[in-house]
Each structure stands twice: as C-alpha cells, then as structure tokens.
Amino acid sequence: MAFFAGATELEFVPQGTDSSRGAKLISNGSDGSFWGYMGYTGTGSVQGGGAWRYRSIYTHGYLAAGYKGSNPWRSVNKTWHATDSTLYCGEQISGPQSYCDGFYSDYNGYIQAGPTGRAFNAGGDWMASYGLANGTIRMFTADGFSSAGLSYGYQGNDPKNEGLTYGSGGFTNHVGGMRLSTSIVDAAGTQDIKGQGGWMNGGGTSTTHRMHFPTEVMYTGWDSGNSGRGTAAAGESRGYFQWSGTNYKYVTWSNSTWTSNWPQGGGWGKDNHCKIQSTKWGHHYIGTGNNVTSGKARFSDSTGATLANFSKVRSYGEDNPMDGQDWGYIMGHYDGQQNNHTIKQTHSSDSEVTLGAAAMPKGHYGQSSGACSTAAATVIGGGM
C-alpha cells in the first residue's frame, strides 16, 4: 500500500514480503514502522524462513509433569516467551508422571499420563490433554474406542457405527480414542504440525502411536524397528527420532515412511537422556553425550546433517526442551540432582544463557524428564 503527498510517495507502511505474512504493523518509536509479531524483539521487519517459520507465531509454552528424587509430579507451568516469565498452573495432569513425553497440536497439549498413585519411572497407557490457552486439564482416557482396521484420519460423525467400536476390540480392553495400545515409558514424542498429527514411538514398543488431531483418535502401526527409550524433533517435512545408543531414524511426514540414519545420526553414540529441541529455523539441537554431559550440536532440518558443535552453558541431561519462535528453553534438568535451572537457547546464534527465578518452573523444586508444548496466542486466544 502506498500513500502520496502530491507526487511524493510517503513510506508509512513498509513493503510486505512472504516472511511478513500474518505479521502486525508496529511503530519503531519515531517516524517509521516495521512488520513484527508478539514477542518479536527486532527493530526491522521479520526476515527469512518464509511460510513455515511464520505459519503461527509461538508466544508461550508449557512444561507438564517431571520428577524430583523418586517423586513424579502432576504439575503444569506456563512460560511467556516475550518476558521469560513462568507461572504455575497447578496440579493439572490426571496422574503423576516421570520419564514421559508427548506432543502438541495448535490448540492442545498431549502427554503420556497415569492414574493417581502411579509409581516413579513406571510405564502406562493413558494419555492426558490440557488446553494451550490456559494449561488446564481437558481430559484423560481411561476408556475410548478402537481404531483397529481403519485407515488413518477418520473424520466421520458416527464412530460407534462406522467401524470405531467400543469395548474389547482393537487395543484390548476399554482403549482407543486417545489411549495407547500398550504401556510405555520414556518414549519419543513429536508432532507433524502441518499434517495435524502426533507421533509417539519407543519406550518399550517399536509400534508408533499416531494421533489424528482433528478427531483425537489414536492409531497404531508404522513400526520403527526400535523400542528403546527415546527423544524426537518436529521438522517441517520430517520427524527426527533417536533411541538409546546409535539408533537414529527420521520419518517423512508426507508418506509416513521411516528412513534409517540421518547422515550417520551425527555419529553420536549416546543414551536418550539429552533431549532434542525443535526449531522452525531450519535446524534443531541435540545433546551429543550421555546423561549430564556438555556437548551439543545443531543439525539440519532438511537433511539431518550436523551443522555445528558447541558446548552447553553447563553439563546437564534429562532436560525439558520447550520450542519457541526465535528462541527456546530448557525448563529444568538433571545435573546430579533434579532442578529448576532454566536456560534460554537462541536459534540465531546457538547461544545458551542461564535465566533467573522468574523464568524457572514453580510449584516443585526439581522437574526433570517432563514434557513440553508450545502455542501461539493469535491461534488459541489468550492475552499476555
């Protein structure tokens, strides 16, 4: 859009590009403006990344569950990324959970959960969900329906009479819906956010549990050949999975096929205690050693190739990586004891910075091996 004073063009509105699609016009504090978004700290219009990076603008995230000593938690914490501040949302998860993972849609977070009184480091087949607007519990599945024999993506209106039967079929007794077909612990979870599906693999089974977000039906299949404890990253066209040892594979979202060894999987022989952190910047981060080590690498989202190696701000493992728009967080970890030590990971420079008490999880001291989710306020609503 152009404005003129006589024949002179007045540049009140900067030129829009694909990168600024969906952005807001923000004053620069003097006589100009630029395209930005909630939480953006730059002084010029957003650049690079295109439609994938700016599909939605991540503004806040959640940490759910985790543990201290041998005590698993039910807590949920909410972190506002623009201010590096974290608020305690209460004990929201259906049952205490440690060594867990999950995935998230545009609207809801999903986490492997358990019944009240669940033991530390114990497997389970429940799933719980909380809303990404306020972090409050939505549901958990002790019952449901079976998706056995149906192709992925059912969108009918009468599931009971259209093949999704309740009761003993499919996932044994009173399962299906969001529930898992078998008990798992410390599995790898991530999401195909453009394809609107969540993936959970490993933790005791090589079968993939795949949720169709629009209907919240869980499907099984897509065997990875790996059943160990794991960690995973959400890319634009791929999901990257790593299980204990040197077991690395990626799944191509478009055809749901597994491919062995993203370029030698970085060559890292490691356990799964150092987690992967996803970004929308064309790369992801992964710890390159076993538990409580200092090595970290940046690898390509498009190829899996290692792009850089660097050191963490301190040695840690069993971390809780929270995705973000231009930076992410480690929301507590284990360094010999479980703690709430919070680290900010900037995507443009690979730098890690330790944050203060305002950013740390609240409600419990020590929250290792929980599960995080991330949301965009412009999508789910909810102001800062």
Question: Key features?
Answer:
single chain; 384 residues; mainly beta; Neuraminidase; four-stranded antiparallel beta sheet; 2 helices; 30 strands; 2% helix
Q: Brief overview, please?
A:
With 384 residues, the protein is mainly beta. The chain is 2% helix and 39% strand.
Overview of the structural elements:
It is a single chain. By secondary structure, this protein is an all-beta fold. The protein has two domains: 50 residues, no CATH class; 318 residues, Neuraminidase. It is 2% helix and 39% strand. The chain contains two helices and 30 strands. The strands form nine sheets. A four-stranded antiparallel β-sheet has the order 9-8-5-30. A four-stranded antiparallel β-sheet has the order 10-11-12-13, with no helix packed on it. Strand 24 and strand 25 form a beta hairpin. The longest helix is centred in the first third of the chain and has 4 residues. The protein is globular. The two termini are 30 Å apart. About 3% of the residues have low confidence.
